[in-house]
Amino acid sequence: MKVIKNFFVALLFASCFSGFAKAQTLQAPDLQCANALANGDIVLTWSTPPLDPCGAFTGYVIWGSQNINGPYSIITTIISQVQTTYTITNPIAGTWYYYMESSYACAGYTALSSDTLDTDKPLPPVIDFVTVQSPAEVLIQFQPSTSPEAYSYIIYEVIGGSNFPIDTIYNGSATQYIDTASTGSGTHTYLIATMDSCGNTGLISTIPHNTIYAYAVTSNCNISAKLVWNKYKNWVGGVNHYDVFVSINNQPSILLATVTDTSTNFTYTADSLCFTIVAHSANGLFISSSNIYCLPPNPSSPVQDFYIRNVTVAGNGIIDVYYSMNKNSDIRTLKIERGTDGVTFNAIAVIDIPTDLTIVNVYSDSTPLTNELSYYYRFEALDSCGVKSNSTIGKSIWLDGGAYSNLVNHLNWENFELDFGEVTSYVVFRKIIANFDSVITISSSITDYEESVAQYVDQNGTICYVIVATDTLNFPNGIIDTVQSRSNEICIDQIVKILVPNAFAPNGKNNTFKPVLRFVDNKSYLFQVYNRWGGLLFSTKDATVGWDGFYQGQIAEQGVYAYLVQVVDNQGHTAEQKGTVMLLR
Length: 585
Fold this sequence. Notes:
Layout: E1 2-3, E2 13-14, E3 22-26, E4 30-36, E5 42-47, E6 56-65, E7 73-78, E8 85-88, E9 97-105, E10 109-111, E11 116-118, E12 126-134, E13 137-143, E14 152-159, E15 162-169, E16 176-179, E17 189-195, E18 209-210, E19 214-219, E20 222-229, E21 239-248, E22 254-259, E23 263-267, E24 273-281, E25 287-289, E26 293-295, E27 307-315, E28 318-324, E29 333-339, E30 346-351, E31 361-365, E32 376-382, E33 388-390, E34 394-395, E35 399-403, E36 408-413, E37 417-418, E38 421-431, E39 436-443, E40 448-452, E41 462-474, E42 480-486, E43 490-493, E44 497-499, E45 503-504, E46 516-518, E47 522-530, E48 536-540, E49 550-551, E50 554-555, E51 559-569, E52 574-583
Parallel strand pairs: 3-10, 45-52
Antiparallel strand pairs: 1-11, 2-3, 4-5, 5-8, 6-7, 6-9, 9-11, 12-13, 13-16, 14-15, 14-17, 17-18, 19-20, 20-23, 21-22, 21-24, 24-25, 24-26, 27-28, 28-31, 29-30, 29-32, 32-33, 32-34, 34-37, 35-36, 36-40, 38-39, 38-41, 41-42, 41-43, 44-46, 47-48, 47-51, 49-50, 51-52
């Protein structure tokens, strides 16, 4: 907490400069924070005032007391004019109050005091209410912290019992915050904490407030339906009542009911209905609106023509699953399920019901291990009569492979599968530098491939592949389609080879001694030549440079010389070769 300590400045006259009499007012440091640490120590932080030409600087005086009204005692004097922090060790337990003054060797001056700060954490603001403003906005209204050092507010969302910071408001007098949250999928709960200008955060408020999420429980089998919502919590005195508003066929909303419970019944017929719940606080000061929950006209068609249309790897750890169904299908919840054997499936997500059932929709699964497994997918839909329907099944492609020491890469992959579909071919694509190029088209009955990479030994040490399957679909409802499914991308690190000649003649045709490298996109390179006594004759880090046989301007003596070649490629793999070479003259 910050308390401003007022000092009245009196004019004192003294001679600081020859021939002049001048009243001196010395600016105090700007004391910003008094932070109590977990071990009991207290850290003071300030910014230094402008230099005063009145006289020599003698210190910043720190005053302290355990009573806001004093008396205050000198804690210490800081003799460094550029120092901006000081730690008070082992103070007496309890709240302390501090202020600072500047001290100069200047006769006749008045020292102004800094603000007085205490060591208590800044108090959190009090939330008045939270309310849904739009499908993607929640308004949080609160009373500012009563701690004068309030510099900013940290907004937390409570998820699964844990507090997650979502934003910081850098305005100590703020009273509102708008969270861009999806309000159509559940309730949102918020807390707020106060932070001072030194980044010290006070306690998080202990009274969370939540939005109201409304949804309907309906059934095609019965025109009687129920609108349900969660309770608004933590108003002083609680909720007085809930108003239920309904818009019929996009007309202005009307009051349907006023209740004290959290549900109400309504008749669900062929009209389009949109509901909003408004909670009123017991003290009559606040209201909170729910999301707008809309229902289309009561459908009569069960889920039909429920097909997976494609399963394809869209990136590392991402699989896109395409699906379609009859446009009049009655769906209330939609789940996607995944498995690894085509028999056992587990739900991985409850997904939003597509707004347009006339098209092929897609769900992106961002949790699979695409470089380790292939996955089976299916959907489960629940209609308003409680009947579950499963879609057809689709399976992704998993590609694996490696490099042989004989300059051959081998690939193998899991076959692609779609119910009511037939794979017509697989195409192997290769990438060496930037783009994938088609290598070969393979029969649908083959799921492995090998190729020589000898022609690419001068390229970098990594070659990447993907497989693309082409599948023709023929569904019972008459739909015929052709799709392509992509596998995961694998990049095979080639085995680094270092080839070194065993002789060369500086005056002959083979007049340079230089290693030949295969599949080395080298990160670092070292090539050295030594004489028989271990003396270094030649060294280079440039893979394009060899030894011409010269040492100190002359051709070296004929004989055997030792060499060392070290290469570290871009994957961090190290290759090393040592040996001897014969120099012929």
